[in-house]
Amino acid sequence: MEQGTNSRGRPGRPKANLEIDLYSTPAGARAVENPVRRTILAALRERECTFEEIVSLAGRAKSTVSVHLQDLAAAGVIGSRPDPEDSRRKIFFLTGDLVASVLPETRVADDLAAYAGMYRPGSGDPFAFYRLAFRTIRVSLMQEGVLLDPLLTRAGEWLGEELYPAVAAPETGAFCANIARFWEEHRLGRIEVAETEPLVLLIYDCFECVDLPVTGKPACAFDSGILRALFSRHYGRPAEAVETRCYSMGFDHCRFEIAVEGGGREECRTPE
Hints:
This protein is α+β, with helices and mostly antiparallel strands. The chain folds into two domains: about 80 residues, Winged helix-like DNA-binding domain superfamily/Winged helix DNA-binding domain (Arc Repressor Mutant, subunit A, Orthogonal Bundle); about 120 residues, Muramoyl-pentapeptide Carboxypeptidase, domain 2, CATH 3.30.1380.20. The chain has eight helices and twelve strands. The strands form three sheets. Strands 8, 9, 10, 11 and 12 form a five-stranded antiparallel sheet that branches. A four-stranded antiparallel sheet has the order 2-1-6-7. A hairpin with a 2-residue loop joins β4 and β5. α6 packs across α8. The longest helix is centred in the middle third of the chain and has 19 residues. It is globular. The N and C termini lie far apart (about 50 Å). The relative contact order is 0.10. GO terms for molecular function: DNA-binding transcription factor activity. This is Helix-turn-helix domain-containing protein.
């Protein structure tokens, strides 16, 4: 759809001040730079919308919004269907997912080595290199202002689904203990249950963020996805792992509150 140019005017690396959202579609990845289109897609990520609702949210003339919708549809980012209450109207929806965003204000200007660290052969830790590789990729993207949180969350959810049988337990306390044991055995961090009503987990030495720059924002999208999938399976209904503290926010641990659909924060109890 839209492509950045480098300082010499050739297609390539985005301009330093360019904000871009990257969407996956059935036809491949699509980059969206135009702020009006980004606003439209942000609204559609929340829910499906009618044309009139999109016009109101975008704050642009109907003719302008219509052109943007046509281009987004042609790129395969959105689709539409007739409104069941009025066949003359259309309801618009996303056909893909937000994969990443390039946001100049989130660029990390510090030296990569300060956060990526060094690999020391013979350290005796078989997981050290893989943690280093994950951290280096993450910080390299942060230096460019690229946020992969949506993609990392979905990857975490997939992994959580695969992991669930290995940690499943009918009682919530035992379930949390199994998760903590798995985290420690695989050098992912140390998990403690800080509160039971609601259920709050603390993660120390978190593999995902312990060495990341302090940005003031949560950084554990991958962990959030894993925990979301695990507790959704455990409680038998959609759950969220809401990160309220993180190493990247200046804390010495990460803190997750487990929120379950229809019940707010979930208590640590045996599910009925």
